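We read letters as residues; the fold follows as tokens. A sample entry reads:
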Amino acid sequence: MTPQQFTGLALALMTPPLLASANSTATQPCEQLTPPANVIFEKTPGWQQPDDLPRFCQVRGQIEGRTRFELRLPEDWNGRFVMAGCGGFCGSLQPDKKGHSNSINEALKKGYAAISHDGGHTSKSWETDWAYEDPTALELYAHRILPQVTGAGTELTTQLYGQPPEYRYFSGCSNGGRLGMMAAQRYPGLFDGIAAGGGIFSISQIAGLWGNWMIQQTGAESEPVFNPQKNPLIKQAILKQCDTLDGLADGVITDPRQCQFDFKTLQCDNNEDTEHCLTPDESAMLSRLYGGVLDKRGQLVSPALSFGSEHYTDIWLFGSLDKPAWGSAASRGYRQLLSHNLFSSDSHQPVSTDTMQQWIGQSTLPALTDADNPDLTSLARHKTKLMIYHGWSDPLIIPQPMVDYYEQASEHSGGLEKLKENARLYMVPGWGHCWERPAETPAEFDPLEIVANWVEQGKAPESFIASQRSPLGELLRQRPICAYPQVANLVNRELPNRADSYRCGPPVAPAIAPPETR
């Protein structure tokens, strides 16, 4: 059986089909929509018919004179509404962003009324100076954008179709994932279902502690220590060391916490510097980068980079003085925002970990922007479902803090089984940051469809199927992604590329002489 032939069977077994609401059409002409009290239209709403999208009513405007948005209302509506997130520090309106990360067109194709926004300000996604003297803009970005955009979007949706949405959803990744976590904690009744991916839920820890540490180690604001052209060297060495820890040689490190690697084994002889080995400075830097964030006493204060993230580190962490990596630029932006919040001045260089801890403790920013409250008990009261998904190989929004948060939420809820009734975490092996670079592992899935199935069918997903395709779109292999803490264990070693060859369960010890599949 080919991968294409078993796809339908595996999907039917492991992911229920999305329920179809009764389709509705417009009861009012698109051009006659009127803006809500806090909205102005940038142009008259009108019907659009792109080649690759269904016919939709396009509504573009501003809310409260700040937040730019585009709402797309399909001619054939399925009764659902979805608000997308926005990435980084936001700042631009991107209604045609592709894929499932802070995007609306895939939902539009399925009949959703879908709204995109700019986060309440205009800027580059790594900049923060828009917030220095504008607390309203900062509050919008932090969380108030959620009820603001949803309120305007659902009112216009109700106008066009003559009825409110039957279901309301949120779907976002990165900062969009943080907004999803914020919705679950501050506005648990705003949405029926929330898909929160790759979330920088604790900006103070991830952009503050980790980001500041990362900049120090890589030399991003002084002299870069590591040559990104050597990234394939460490990628291959780590994969060789840790690939088979899960019992299968398939290019996937299922749980990087099991991996141990000594970068000194890659050091050059006689202090030479070639693409085939590491200098002592590079080796020492990588050891610190993967080892964790340390204070002046050498105590671990935050986890850091995970093994298996090497497929993505060059684009997120290792840049140059002329072209810093996005992660370095965004972490600098957070440090500057923190500095302005406390001292009304810039901080031009990374600070010590102890200083960063002091700043975070003194600042009002974390209480405003961090979505790290482990109390998710209000979700049950509102019957809201929260799907959290995160890549084990994400070098930007490091994964361990999300696992730690979920375990804290479990304790707060009275145990994992109680929490899982309304909130589930899915850790995706080998996946990086929000599909910004294609993964070399099965990591394609539609989070909105998964959470909508959960809400509308009332059956929590024990797993969902992730796929991997070639650049030409050919299906290569599939895996189930299991609800944490379970993992996908191979039970049919003859067909390791099939999703139905795996069962969710506790991690098992590595097999002897694991099969080679790549």
Summary: Residues 135-161 form the longest helix (27 residues).
